[in-house]
Amino acid sequence: MQRVLAVIGGSGVYDIPELGNVREHTIDTPFGSPSDVIIEGVLGDVRCLFLPRHGRDHHRPPHQINYRANICALKKLGAEQVVSVSAVGSMREDIHPGDVVVVDQYIDLTKRRESTFFEDGVVAHVSFADPVCSALAAAAARAVTQAGGRVHAGGSYVCIEGPQFSTRAESLLYRSWGVSVIGMTAMPEAKLAREAELPYVTLAFATDYDCWHETHDAVSVDTVIRVLAQNSALAKQALRGLCAALPDPRLSPASRALAAAILTPPDRVSTANRARLGWLLDPYLEHGTT
After folding, report:
1. CATH number of the structural domain spanning residue 218
2. What range does the domain containing 137 cover?
3. What is the pTM (predicted TM-score) of this model?
4. Active-site residue numbers?
5. Residue 28, SS3?
6. Which of 38 and 214 is assigned the larger pLDDT?
């Protein structure tokens, strides 16, 4: 059976030129339109769905990305697991610009983003203690190493609202929490992927030391851009390797995240909610409407 991998590209990763049999999908969702058209193609034996998180011309700031539409569109197109590629700041001395952190935990400090599909009459509480699929993370780490990257397996990602970078006081506070990297896009993306029963992993490509480091300049767009080209090439090579060694998504706990999470009885789910959330709820609800 052909695997289907969704790749959400971050800053500097706006396409995967090696894809074969390419076609584009313009898709609408109950939550609006995703960040851009979704590119479908074949990489090795894997069907890939590629979505540039900020748009191909980088016109969507982190706080205005329609995360719900992005995850919904990928799921509806058949995605089985998700790799998120993100540019981040390093919060540790040993994570150098150019290094890759395969994140396994998140701290969500965002403020204004829609972070769930379940509202307005349908309640579900998915388990999120371990937000990253361990098998997918291990395969991703191996792929980055084989591509020549310096990898840190595991680490916490603190997600801020943005679009401004942190103050020095904030950066030092986050450092005291023991986080590994800081960014603006992993949340609520990871939460929504879990609700959509999609195994998920973030490849966090460090571009700078944020503003905590005493001997490095404070982060700036110029600083980030200088590292992005190197990171982009590594990311694309790692994705090729990952496609050759994808784990079975059915073995991930994320693949049945809703099985014990939905609290609303089937006969209390309205016709409107069945239409809006059928792509998630149909396997778990009896047919019929209220």
Report:
1. 3.40.50.1580
2. 4-281
3. 0.92
4. 208, 210
5. coil
6. 38
